[in-house]
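Project standup — Tuesday

K.O.: blocked on the structure for the chain from last sprint. Re-posting the sequence here as requested.
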Amino acid sequence: MIKGKFNILVKLGIHVRVASEIVEILSNQNCKMVLKKDLKIADCENLLAILGLRIAFGETVDYEVNGENHESELKCIQSIEELFNAEK
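H.V.: unblocked you, prediction finished:
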């Protein structure tokens, strides 16, 4: 398990398109991830749970990733970090 933080640099925050890309990344990498904001926790296999966090531009969210091995966990984190750092 890997824990860390993401800084959200997507100008519109985490909206439907970005959330659906998160779900897709995790399904392709065979990883499980949860995002945490304030006291809320979202399973990243659930699009509505991610949107329910209402993550805005400039916010920081905590994450926990579980994968088959350390390498798959790092791939998941890297892919999602690139998504969050993109100016979309």
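K.O.: great, moving the ticket to review. The CA atoms of residues 34 and 73 lie 12 Å apart. The chain is about 40% helix and 30% strand.
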